[in-house]
Write a structure and sequence with these properties.
The complex is a heterodimer of chains A (about 180) and B (about 450).
Chain A lengths: L4 H9 L6 H20 L2 H17 L10 H27 L17 H7 L3 H12 L4 H8 L3 H29 L6
Helix pairs in contact in A: 2-3, 2-4, 3-4, 4-5, 5-8, 6-8, 7-8
Chain B lengths: L2 H12 L5 H13 L1 H23 L6 H13 L6 H7 L15 E4 L5 H19 L3 E9 L15 E9 L5 E6 L2 E5 L4 E5 L3 E5 L10 H7 L1 H15 L3 E7 L5 E9 L19 E8 L5 E10 L2 E13 L17 E2 L9 H5 L3 H14 L2 H4 L7 H7 L3 E5 L14 E8 L5 E10 L6 E5 L2
Parallel strand pairs in B: 7-13
Antiparallel strand pairs in B: 1-8, 2-3, 2-12, 3-4, 4-5, 5-6, 6-7, 8-9, 9-10, 10-11, 11-12, 14-15, 15-16, 16-17
Helix pairs in contact in B: 1-2, 1-3, 2-3, 6-8
Classes of the chains: A mainly alpha (about 180), B alpha+beta (about 450).
């Protein structure tokens, strides 16, 4: 059975950096998906994802709640995306080139709340969602991977959907209330 | 099936995990119940979004590049690359105005005392960074002949892989490989092995040997750049520092050095060996990690500029298996013999280079290996190649600028091998200090 994020983080902190590979394997898909949504460019999203993981590794000792690794990683990725976007803007200005390559609007964050909703799921639920949708495993395969009954997988998925919908509704409500859009 | 049962089974139903009877009951309930239908639609919508997100991330594989950087971060001491230091100092150097992301910064080292002082800082810090390395492994590809000298280059040849492993601490050991030869310094002695059966040994440790110097310099990245910058200053070679966006979208710092061999255009050795070539050397650093990512060396050949060397892998501080520094030699290996005074040594010492070349080839033609061995250590491979050879012509010798400082001279020859193939080339000859006799230094 896979270890938890907290256990992997602890291993890395204990001088086993190669265990970070397992965290990268676990979260490369959703992190890339999130950055792809924000940056709108595959190669930039890949670069940002790499940079986010590396920065996360460098700051691992500062992570106070290792069980929230992915949520924390997503925060780092958000900052990397902002930096990359600003850097791109500067380069565009330097080159005096019209914004044609990355015609993605700056206010892309609000369009991708699902990734952040996944990040704040309790780990048990998030793990099942990631395996089902980002590793594209069937429910049966998820059950085998996590060594749990099939019925538990479907019930966990069901509960995860409920939590995700609640989180998305809460974010949507907050957005409407504040009329705020964060710019990367 | 009631609403509670339907919702309990909704995910299993959508996933097709219910048995046929339960599926029918679930669908029947959904048809009849608007609330459960809405719940079903909401889940289906969410699933659709999740599938899209998952598909967007399909085929993403950043594990290896991330782990390479993670290992570098974890294992490598903080490095102050020359580029990073130059960039840090660029404002003080008056380069700030051109420090935009795509600006090209031309650094002329001899321009001002301020620049020279910065260069000194760069060199000192570069040396410190090197002092902290424990191992380095570099792999690249070079246009050369697989068995020829380690520094031999030929723009018309295909690339072959060259590698260097270097252990700097606790004890210096190194190994350089190309397909046809290996050189190993195991801390005690230095051995060169040329496949299939020739070996020579220096009975002491060495920092480099057998024309591997250029690879050692490549392995010592900071020192190499220091040398490049020093040479640039001394010889007035142009050095440029550019910042560009790499193919991967990341900002790169690119140091380019236009190196000149100093040999005249007609010199026989010019552009034949790494250190005797006019080259453009391009060092590419990743701005974020500050790590050297690649090196390309282009030869300024008569036919135009051509890539002759490309470095494609650098590993810093990765443990090197001790077996790398243990050379496995075949049982029939022939060790190079130190030249000894002969009873009729004067006869050979009095030979002109042309006479020495002819005597050597004619001995090979007679398969008189004792005689041929007076000029060259004869391995089975050489015997096979030169046995029965006929001398067609021996020309007058010529020299290179390097002959004056201990390099060989060259005797043009034309020989017909026993298979009928006629070879025209130049035999490199050197004079042995102890015996005063000519010996073959290459060119077969």
């Amino acid at each position: 059975m896979d270890l938890t994020d907290k256990e992997y983080v602890q291993h890395c902190r204990d001088g086993h950096p190669d265990d970070f590979r397992l965290l990268v394997l676990r979260y490369q898909g959703p992190l890339f998906s999130y950055l792809m949504g924000r940056l709108g460019n595959r190669s930039q999203a890949e670069e940002a994802a790499q940079e986010s993981f590396v920065r996360a590794f460098q700051s691992l000792k500062k992570l106070r709640k290792p069980e929230l690794f992915y949520s924390w990683l997503l925060g780092i990725a958000g900052r990397v995306a902002k930096e990359q976007f600003r850097s791109w803007k500067r380069r565009q200005q330097d080159r005096e080139v019209a914004e044609t390559i990355m015609a993605k609007p700056a206010d892309t964050l609000a369009e991708y709340p699902l990734d952040e909703a996944i990040a704040v799921l309790p780990e048990t639920y998030r793990q099942v969602i990631l395996l089902r949708y980002y590793e594209e495993l069937s429910c049966l395969e998820v059950a085998q991977r996590l060594d749990m009954p099939l019925g538990t997988v479907t019930k966990t998925l069901s509960r995860a959907y409920t939590l995700l919908r609640q989180e998305l509704q809460a974010r949507e409500g907050a957005d409407r209330t504040t009329n705020h859009t964060e710019h990367p | 099936m009631n609403c509670a049962e339907c919702r309990d089974n909704l995910v299993a139903c959508i996933e097709g995990l219910l048995d046929p009877e339960e599926t029918l009951q679930c669908r029947a309930h959904l048809e009849a119940c608007a609330a459960c239908r809405a719940e079903h639609a909401a889940i289906a919508h969410l699933q659709h979004q999740l599938v899209e997100r998952g598909q967007a991330a399909a085929h993403v594989s950043i594990v290896e590049p991330v782990m390479r950087r993670v290992r570098a971060v974890h294992e490598e001491p903080e490095r102050n690359s020359i580029v990073s230091i130059i960039l840090k100092h660029r404002w003080g150097l008056g380069l700030g105005a051109t420090a935009g992301a795509v600006a090209v910064i031309l650094i002329t080292l001899a321009s001002t005392p301020k620049v020279q002082a910065a260069a000194a800082v760069v060199m000192t810090r570069g040396a410190e960074a090197v002092a902290n390395l424990s191992t380095i492994h570099i792999r690249g590809r070079l246009r050369t002949a697989p068995q020829d000298n380690f520094s031999y280059i030929n723009p018309d040849f295909d690339f072959v892989t060259v590698e260097i492993w270097k252990q700097l601490q606790p004890e210096l050991k190194w190994r350089v490989d190309k397909p046809g030869r290996s050189a190993v310094m195991d801390g005690q002695s230095t051995v060169l092995f040329i496949k299939p059966d020739f070996a020579t040994k220096v009975g002491q440790p060495s920092s480099s040997a057998f024309d591997t110097q250029w690879l050692h310099e490549m392995a010592d990245v900071s020192q190499t750049l220091n040398s490049e910058l020093s040479a640039s200053k001394l010889h007035g070679w142009p050095v440029t520092l550019a910042q560009e966006q790499g193919a991967d979208g990341k900002p790169k710092s690119i140091v380019t050095v236009e190196a000149k061999s100093g040999l005249l255009a007609g010199d026989y050795l010019k552009n034949k060996f790494f250190g005797m070539a006019d080259t453009r050397r391009v060092y590419v650093f990743d701005d974020q990690s500050q790590l050297l990512e690649s090196v390309q060396v282009y030869l300024h050949a008569d036919s135009g500029e051509k890539l002759i060397f490309e470095l494609d892998q650098i590993d810093y501080n990765h443990p090197i298996d001790p077996s790398v520094f243990q050379l496995q030699l075949p049982v029939n290996v022939v060790w190079q013999q130190e030249m000894q005074l002969l009873p009729d040594n004067e006869k050979y010492a009095a030979m002109t280079p042309e006479q020495a070349a002819r005597t050597f080839f004619e001995a090979c033609g007679r398969e008189d290996w004792a005689e041929a061995g007076k000029f060259c250590t004869m391995t089975s491979g050489l015997k096979e190649f030169l046995g029965g050879v006929q001398v067609v012509n021996i020309g007058n010798h010529f020299t290179s600028a390097l002959t004056l400082i201990g390099g060989p001279l060259f005797v043009p020859y034309e020989i017909k091998l026993k298979g009928g193939y006629v070879k025209k080339f130049n035999l490199a000859l050197k004079k042995d200090a102890k015996t005063g006799r000519w010996y073959v230094d290459g060119g077969i």
